[in-house]
Amino acid sequence: MLKAGVLGAGHLGKIHLKLLQQSTNYDLVGFFDANQEAAAVIEAEFGYKSFPSMESLIYACDMVDVVTPTLFHFECGKKVIEAGKHLFIEKPITHTVEEADALRDLAKKHGVRGQVGQVERFNPAFMAVNHMIDKPMFIEAHRLSEFNPRGTDVSVVLDLMIHDIDAILSVVKSDVKRVHASGVTVISETPDIANARIEFENGCVANLTASRISMKTMRKARFFQKDAYISVDFLEKKCEVVKMKDAPENPDDFAMILTNAEGVKKQIYFDNPEVDANNAILDELNSFAEAIKNDRTPEVSLSQGADALRVAMQVIENFKML
Fold this sequence. Notes:
Blueprint: E1 2-7, H1 11-22, E2 26-32, H2 36-46, H3 54-59, E3 63-66, H4 73-82, E4 86-90, H5 97-110, E5 114-117, H6 124-129, E6 138-144, H7 156-171, E7 176-184, E8 193-200, E9 205-211, E10 218-225, E11 228-233, E12 238-246, E13 256-259, E14 265-270, H8 280-293, H9 302-317, E15 319-321
Parallel strand pairs: 1-2, 1-3, 3-4, 4-5, 6-9, 7-15
Antiparallel strand pairs: 6-10, 7-8, 8-9, 10-11, 11-12, 12-14, 13-14
Helix pairs in contact: 4-5, 5-9, 7-9
């Protein structure tokens, strides 16, 4: 078992502590949080060992899980890597693209593995269909949440939209060509609503909307490709796959047949895969353990985390503020 520790014991940090303790891949040694009073309360309530310093925790671990505010990701990640320990780090990978590239290079230099916590990659609905997404040419994603002061230290792009950016980059095998974006500041000091149009070199276009001041919660993405439409509901963990194929000469009475303007007949059929329930955060942590043990590239590498942040920063830099 890999000895694991957590840096940062806030809301998400406590979830990671609980799941690492449950995992059969890790031996949870404890945590460090800069707020020592809060750390003492957590230690007394849950029994997790609180370490007196970041360095002492890192020294005791094989893998360190960084769940601090984004502003401190680079500082913490750098110390973990330079100590020769494997790094799991929450999204966004760092505060700046330059820091993300530096972490990636450091991990390569020190021969350690790194994974970014892009949890939607492990959403069971997305996992059920991602192998079916083949050369999508138009993608639409909506990620809407009710207002929560937690997370407003960063733009809605880095708080919410980056989930969809990462998922889209994982299935569109092409470089980004152009980004157009608009943002609206309503409550926070940074945009609370954002829309981005990402154009890829291969002609694919992705239209993304993210809001953290909505009246309802929604996390949906739709992928359109030749002869197929794929819908993923990340919130409800459901997916729908609609495919088209050339209609047979003698279709049965229940076949759904469409005829286009050129007179070509297509049959519509549904190919909805089974969605297996899971705990996505536990799965991503276990996936990282497997990558370390088998010396393979993690599911969401530091390079991929840097790429997602790079596109997210392009969105922010291209904002037309309304």
